[in-house]
Design brief:
Blueprint lengths: L20 H15 L6 H8 L3 H8 L2 H26 L3 H18 L7 H9 L4 H27 L9 H21 L3 H12 L4
Length: about 200
């Protein structure tokens, strides 16, 4: 009788992820945002995200990699939200007014006083980390470009007077926007923040 080689019937089943990656990344983003990079340990992430270390590393990489992915999610969400606001509001002054007022509303209602994730990262990680320096510099440039394009659209449509340096104005408005989120961490005084916004908006004539 011919002998047949033994064929194993045992197969290694692929590991199935029992979690939604985007949902986990959002939770990680919120934890880093609230506690900061240095104060958030891997064990904090494991406990908060409710996934084991192996799944964490397999899916997102190490802590720094997860942090960068979390920030990219925050950055994308912020850019998309502001771009949509500008697209929906053809009046440039009204658009910036809505943007600033929304920032004030969020700041005043935020019990954790998280401020702006990007600004928090800047004050914590810069200038000691070059990789984060590049990411945050790129983020700043992207937002200033978005503000500039909106201002240029308003100027081209005759809403704004001819302004020689729209880039400086875009930079100033971006600084003002971030300033609202920074100062609100100290004392979220709605009246004080609103008065500052009014001065900034007075430049849009």
């Amino acid at each position: 009788m011919e002998a047949y080689p033994y064929v194993s019937t045992f197969y290694i089943m692929p590991r199935v992820k029992l979690f939604d990656e985007n949902e986990v990344l959002t939770k990680a983003m919120n934890l880093f945002w609230k506690q900061g990079y240095a104060a958030t340990s891997v064990q904090d992430l494991v406990a908060h995200l409710r996934i084991n270390r192996a799944s964490l590393y397999d899916t997102f990489g190490d802590k720094e990699e997860l942090f960068k992915k979390s920030f990219e999610l925050y950055r994308k969400n912020s850019m998309d939200r502001i771009r949509q606001l500008f697209d929906d509001q053809p009046n440039v002054k009204e658009g910036f007014s809505e943007l600033f007022n929304h920032a004030i509303k969020e700041a005043v209602s935020d019990k954790d006083r998280k401020g702006c994730f990007a600004v928090n990262n800047t004050t914590e990680l810069i200038p000691n980390n070059e990789s984060f320096q590049e990411i945050l510099s790129s983020n700043k440039q992207d937002f200033e470009n978005l503000f500039y394009e909106y201002l240029k659209k308003g100027q081209d449509s005759g809403q704004l007077k001819e302004i020689k340096d729209l880039w400086s104005l875009a930079s100033f408005l971006f600084i003002t926007y971030n300033g609202i989120l920074v100062i609100s961490k100290i004392e979220p005084n709605k009246k004080e923040l609103t008065n500052s916004v009014s001065i900034a908006l007075s430049l849009l004539v």
